[in-house]
Specification:
The complex is a heterodimer. Chain A is mostly beta strands. Chain A contains no helices and eleven strands. In chain A, the strands form two sheets. In chain A, strands 2, 4, 5, 6, 9, 10 and 11 form a seven-stranded mixed β-sheet that branches. In chain A, strands 1-3-8-7 form a four-stranded antiparallel β-sheet, with no helix packed on it. By secondary structure, chain B is mostly beta strands. The mean pLDDT of chain B is 93. Classes of the chains: A mainly beta, B mainly beta.
């Protein structure tokens, strides 16, 4: 398996623009997580899904952020409108309770810069 | 709320010495404690984990200990090598697959 795939790897955009980050989890994994990493706040869980259903979105910073998982092999995290303080590395991770107890496998991340 | 504290935030050791990183968790229902290593510019990767029914686990030069009563768990790296230099994150989970991560420890192994 190729592991968790994220795109794009780097994104530079201007304040006010819409940004869409994409994630393909490991095949067979039924949990998908979106994290944001900054120097100041470390690794923050934004939202996670189980079987494509959002379970906990308490970490989503505000209404500008939204996430979807239309099927088991694809998820998006959207920021609209983007702001400079959204600049961070966004990681997607997936896991399976039956294949690998609790271990979360991280994707390579998307480095977002909002000018 | 749920919280994981991690210390120290930075740690420098001489090559060959041992390194210890400590974490404290707040939710007594937590039952799974993974440790992730993140090299510069890379993704976090699991290096070792421990479940609440075990007090200690070893894997070559790394070991993790858990004290459920005190709600403490620690990562021990022996005979450190330059390639151990990275940021290490502890986390706690209570079986819901949601991790609460610590703030990270930047380990530098000096040659």
């Amino acid at each position: 398996d190729a592991g968790v795939i994220q795109s794009p790897r780097h994104e530079v955009t201007e304040m006010g623009q819409e940004v869409t980050l994409r994630c393909k989890p490991i095949s067979g994994h039924d949990y998908l997580f979106w994290y944001r990493q900054t120097m100041m706040r470390g690794l923050e869980l934004l939202i996670y899904f189980n079987n494509n259903v959002p379970i906990d979105d308490s970490g989503m910073p505000e209404d500008r952020f939204s996430a979807k998982m239309p099927n088991a092999s694809f998820s998006t995290l959207k920021i609209q409108p983007s702001e400079p303080r959204d600049s961070a590395v966004y990681f997607c991770a997936s896991s399976s309770g039956t294949i690998s107890y609790n271990e979360q496998f991280f994707g390579p991340g998307t480095r977002l810069t909002v000018l | 709320g749920e919280n994981v504290e991690q210390h120290p935030s930075t740690l420098s050791v001489q090559e060959g010495d041992s390194a210890v990183i400590k974490c404290t968790y707040s939710d007594s229902a937590s039952n799974y404690f993974p440790w992730y290593k993140q090299e510069l510019g890379k993704r976090p990767q699991l290096i070792i984990d421990i479940r609440s029914n075990v007090g200690e686990k070893k894997d070559q030069r790394i070991a993790v200990t858990l004290n459920k009563t005190a709600k403490h768990f620690s990562l021990h790296i022996t005979e450190t090598q330059p390639e151990d230099s990275a940021v290490y994150f502890c986390a706690a989970s209570k079986g819901t697959y949601k991790y609460i991560f610590g703030t990270g420890t930047r380990l530098k192994v000096l040659a």
